Amino acid sequence: MSETIHELSVAERGDWLVARIGGDVDQSNVAEIEAAIRESASAQPLIVDLSDAQYLDSAGVAMLESLRQRGNLALVLPSRSLLRRVLHITALDQLVPTFESVDECPLHLD
User: Fold this and answer.
1) In the structure, what pLDDT confidence band is assigned to residue 1 with cuts at 50, 70 and 90?
2) Going by fewer Cβ within 10 Å, which terminus of the chain is more open, N or C?
3) For 17, left (φ over 0), alpha (ψ -120 to 50), or beta?
C-alpha cells in the first residue's frame, strides 16, 4: 500500500483556477499532480498555491515551468516558506508573479 505524500485541491476563484498543493512534490508524484491541474484548468488562468507544500524537487520546479509556459500563471508562497529560496535559485520567481496569499492575487483579468 502506497502512502500519498501530497494533497491537491482545485477550485475556481474569479477568472482564475486555484490549485492548492500540500505536502511533497517530487519525481514520484509530479506527473499525477500536473495532469490533474491541466485537466482542471485547460486554458483558464492558474494560481498554484504552495503555502502548504513542504518539499519541491527539480521535477516540481520543472512542472511549474511547464505550467508557466501554458500561460497565465501566478504562485502563492508565503515569505516564511523555504520553497521561496528554491524559486529564487532557479530564477522562477523572476518569471512568475509570486504572492504572499491567494487574497493578494488578481482575481479578474483586465
Assistant:
1) very low
2) N
3) beta
Element containing residue 67 per DSSP (H, E): helix 58-69
Total-model pTM:
0.91
Range 6-102 classified under CATH 3.30.70.100: no
Range list of β-strands (E), the chain: 6-13, 16-25, 46-56, 73-76, 98-99
Segments making up each domain of the chain, as ranges: 6-102
Q: Residue for cell digits 499525477?
A: 32
What are the tens digits of pLDDT across the range 35-67? 999 999 878 899 999 999 999 999 999 999 999
Task: Provide the pLDDT confidence category of residue 14 given band limits of 50, 70 and 90.
Answer: confident
Contact 13, 38 (CB under 8 A): no
Say how far residue 45 (Cα) sits from the centre of its chain. Answer: 12
- What's the pLDDT at 108? 57
